[in-house]
Design brief:
rod-shaped, mainly alpha, single chain
Length: 164
């Protein structure tokens, strides 16, 4: 069995451009937004913030003393960019989900149509088999009657030759 294109029902939707396009910025923005939710990002950010606070709190350096204004500014800047990028990624994902849903619906419709065709074919085949069985029964009955008739005639002929 050859390889099949499992996304063949998605092909009619390839012409639809994503909401924000497929240019470099859109793809990188989406990738960056997806990166925000990874465990690697969260763990790395936690470590960096812990180091930042530790080196400023214990006097190793004093570039951002308590109340950590520069750290708060960095978080604000990150949030200012993260929120729109996350919304962009969600919108693009919603568009992909919509296209997949439409393709899946088309696939289910095609499966239902194929199933109906198979049912119709099976019922036609069943009707033909029943008709053949009926004709076979009629032929068997006719053969049985003819065999009985031959037996009677053979018996009559045999009786004539014996009586002569």
């Amino acid at each position: 069995m050859g390889s099949k294109n499992h996304y063949r029902f998605h092909l009619p939707y390839q012409h639809l451009a994503p909401t924000f396009g497929n240019n470099w910025f859109s793809l990188k923005a989406e990738a960056f937004a997806r990166f925000f939710g990874t465990p690697f990002f969260l763990i790395t950010q936690t470590i960096i913030v812990g180091i930042w606070i530790a080196i400023n709190q214990y006097g190793l350096t004093h570039f951002d003393a308590y109340p950590f204004i520069l750290l708060n500014l960095a978080f604000s800047l990150q949030a200012a960019y993260a929120a729109p990028l996350i919304l962009l990624a969600q919108t693009r994902q919603a568009e992909r989900d919509k296209a997949h849903t439409e393709a899946d619906a088309k696939h289910r419709e095609d499966l239902a149509a194929a199933s109906e065709k198979r049912e119709l074919f099976a019922s036609e085949q069943t009707a033909q088999v029943l008709e053949l069985l009926k004709k076979n029964t009629e032929l068997t009955e006719l053969t049985q009657k003819l065999s009985e008739r031959i037996e009677v005639l053979t018996s009559e002929v045999h009786n004539k030759f014996i009586n002569q």
